TrEMBL record:
It is found in: Cell membrane. GO terms for biological process: glycine betaine transport; transmembrane transport. SUPFAM superfamilies: MetI-like. It comes from Jannaschia rubra. It is a multi-pass membrane protein. Keywords: Membrane, Transmembrane, Transmembrane helix, Transport. Pfam families: BPD_transp_1. One of its GO terms (cellular component) is plasma membrane. Signal peptide: none annotated. The chain crosses the membrane at residues 49-69, 76-93, 113-131, 138-160, 180-204, 216-238, 250-271, 310-336, 356-379. The keyword Transport applies. Residues 180-375 form the ABC transmembrane type-1 domain. Belongs to the binding-protein-dependent transport system permease family. This is Putative osmoprotectant uptake system permease protein YehY.
Amino acid sequence: MSLQGPWAVLSAPGLLFAALGLAALSMPFMTLSANRIVAGDGVLAWRVADPSATLPGLAAIVAGLMLGLPSGRTRLHLAGAVLGLGGVLWVLMQGASALLDGAGDYARVSPSVGFWFLLVVLMLLMADALAAMTPRPLLRAAFLAAALVATAAILSSGALSDLSVMQEYAGRRDAFRSEFLRHLGLAFGSLAAATIIGFPLGILCHRRSRLRNATLPVLSFLQTIPSLAMFGLMIPILGWVGTTVPGAQAIGIAGIGFAPAFVALLLYSLLPVVGNTAAGLASAPAAAIEAARGMGMTPRQRLMRVELPLGLPIVLTGLRIVLVQNIGLAVIAGLIGGGGFGTFVFQGLNQTATDLILLGALPTVVLALVAAIVMDILVELARPTQTVTQ
């Protein structure tokens, strides 16, 4: 969308982001509470600390939003987003220590709605700038790596250690590492198992229409089962297997725990893998298939040299769907003892501790976002019609 008349020099998305960002500054930026459970009192951004401490950050936020206004200046928009995010971080750091000063031993300080709103607005400004710049896949990977390194440096520096969510992490450091690995095992393990099962099945569905017509409706039906119901169904089924099959419990198969969560995620993963494999192989142009036949290629050679390379982007798109989906669904595994970040989410719900919920929710969101970006890069690199350079 472009503006008309004298407004044409302004970017329509930038104008929207600036309006939303300035509105966010009128919302509570941080919350101060007496302890980790009770609701706190919201504090505006310019009142979280002494004005001399918050002014540089507030100025950076406003300047960053203003840099997003000129039309067609994508690099300026990107710089504005980075500057604005730096300002948000500065105000958060200053406010965390200032609000806790003299507030009591059990007091907790947390980001409030204004912070999250500003964070989303500035991230959208950055995403809009990057989309307009259309960076090459390897350059996008470099941007992602830089963002992850910067985030890790900030978190490890201790600059945000006064925040309640970081105090929750400090008290559960070993458990967080364990649940992180369990979450990865659920998401990536189910993806690997679905690929091992679904890829050959997708090839067979591509070759045999009867098998495709029988298989895809069944897998589609599995997708319609609500996630909580699917996890619940696995409990009695695998509980029976664990008690009746010799050696099943010895390898971890039981009604609760990792196994039922893993099987549920595997069942959800099969439709995207099988369907996209069959669709990707079917997307190969008929002329290319006929040319391969004319060259005397066997069906196996046509599959490996023609159909699979041409259909690889669609196949990878299916894997992307599975990975992002399973990272999110793995949170529910915490309900049945499967571990993962859902453990913190449901503990926080039981204790009405918002920051404990965030300790599980925020890493899940970041993990899903990183996985989606990485898979998008792989999909673009796999496109045979496009020469990708850095």
